[in-house]
Amino acid sequence: MLESSEILYHAALSLDVYKKDGRPPLPEGCTQYDEYSDPTTGYYGACYIRNIHYHDAITNFDYYSTDIIFAHRGSDSSLDFDNDKNILMNQIPAQYASAVNFVTNTLNKLNPLSYPTIMGSLNSTIIHVGHSSGAVIADLVASKICYYVFDTGTPIQLFVNFVSSTFSNPGSQPIIQEMIASGELSSSIDSHSSAFLPDVNLVTTCNKQAAWVYQLINMPYQYDMTLDSVNLTPIFPIPIYYGDNNYYTLGYTSTQNSMEAIYNYLQAGGAVSDHITTYPYDFNSGYIAYLDGAARKTYWDGYAKKIWEKSQELQELFAGNYDIFYTDFYKYLKHIQSEAANLNLTEKQPLSPLNYSPVFQQLFKRLQQSPTITVNLETFKNPPLPKILTEPASSTEKSPSLTIEDADLDCSPFSLDVYKCTNTFNQAENSKLWTPHPPVL
Question: What is the DSSP string of 266-331?
Fold first, then answer.
């Protein structure tokens, strides 16, 4: 695994490429060499150069190293929608060709004859970094251009290998496999490439990862949040189907997926796991892992406390005894996780009382009166885009049926940390919808 300083360095450039006001300064010794924006696909990338020189007093030898880093921006505008949709459907992203052209043209300009510092380096490395959908682009370009030969103007040719180092990567393995099968790629990225992932969320469990996975351990949790004017807070009862849980798909995912939060975590010395092979992939598996109370006890302890503090009804039902509620809550959570794991049925099974306290059994009676969730088997073969309702429709409201074609824009899961969503009342449908607009950068 990379040294912590290198991980932070790559995170800094993955954040810098968004070009937000107030972003941290570039790491010491690093300068931006070039940038490219494609107004058709929405692609934006930047190239950075870092020259490292140190003197070995023992050998009295000077060592040089040059990093050439390409940072690929994640989603930040409506132009990125097609790109995000491609990734969801395991297709070549719309921005892939733009990124390949940018990298190829920039490397041709970086020939050592015109950029002499590379000629003095026998340890040059070309690194692709990126966040969220930009992470998939980084993986694909590193797989496409496996190495580059610099013309030094001498019989010595300088070979430089490519690697990727990404954050909150939605997973690129199925896309790479399809591209290899079609002849677009000759090979995939290898174990020298890394994907640094926060806790499970809708973005990082989209597809299987191609790079080696490392988890950011114990990133801080945020329970109450606001996306524009919409307040999100822990909900109860907890939906069995991830698509019905807007707190998970929007709020929780936005905080875990934030590149700024990841950078701040690493800068503060946040821990990174060793290489792991158990990180879940596909939306439902990610949601099942999210519901694991034993593995995420710190998170669910805070969640239980939040819903207890906010619900006068719960406090009255349990006569103010939080300990009894706390015990029942974890039994309930385990049951919800079990039902989520068995959502290959056309209808959910009724909740059973199990061995809950009498008060919680009263809650079950209410929950059993809730509308039945119908799940189509095809849903899990081709997971849908996350629902964009801010809240369930009331009995007097018409429940909307939305597809990609029905909405002008979608709150793509890859854009949650940079999109700003607003609660807009749609008179035609008589329902509340999420409608994003470009952020103020």
Answer: HHTT--B---BS----SHHHHHHHHT-TTTTHHHHHHHHHHHHHH-HHHHHHTTT-HHHHHHHHHH
The answer to whether residues 43 and 98 touch, using CB atoms and an 8 Å cutoff, is yes
Residue 399 neighbours by CB distance under 10 Å: 11
Instruction: Check if the beta carbon of residue 193 is closer than 8 Å to that of residue 139.
Output: yes
Buried b vs exposed e over 422-435: b needs ≥16 C-beta within 10 Å?
eeeeeeebebbbbb
Q: Determine what percent of the chain falls in helix, strand and coil, rounding each to the nearest 5.
A: 35, 20, 45
CB environment 163-192: b (16+ within 10 A), e (fewer):
bbbbbbbbbbbbbbeebeeeeebeebbeeb
Closest CA to 127 of 43, 23, 45, 19: 45
Gyration radius (Cα) of the chain, Å: 24
> For residues 23 and 72, what is the distance between their CA atoms, to the nearest angstrom?
16
Give residue limits of the domains in the chain. 4-220+254-282, 297-368
DSSP code string of 52-93: EEEEETTTTEEEEEEEEEEEE----SGGGHHHHHHHHTT---
* Chain centroid, CA 324 distance in Å: 36
Phi, psi for 385 (deg, rounded to 5): -65, 150
Q: DSSP label at 172?
A: -
10 Å CB burial of residue 117 (0-12, 13-18, 19+) is middle
DSSP symbol at 151: E
Q: How far apart are CA 261 and CA 242, in angstroms?
A: 23
Contacts of 90 (CB under 8 A, 6+ apart): 174, 175, 178, 207
Q: Look at residues 141, 172, 186 and name the one whose alpha carbon lies nearest to residue 47.
A: 141
Contacts of 170 (CB under 8 A, 6+ apart): 87, 132, 133, 135, 136, 203, 204, 206, 207, 413, 414
- 349 pLDDT higher than 80: no
pLDDT for 124-173, tens place per residue? 678 999 999 999 999 999 998 866 655 555 544 455 567 899 999 999 99
Q: What is the pTM of this model?
A: 0.77
CATH code for the domain defined by 4-220+254-282 = 3.40.50
Q: Give the distance between the most distant pair of CA atoms in the chain.
A: 84
pLDDT at 291 over 80: yes
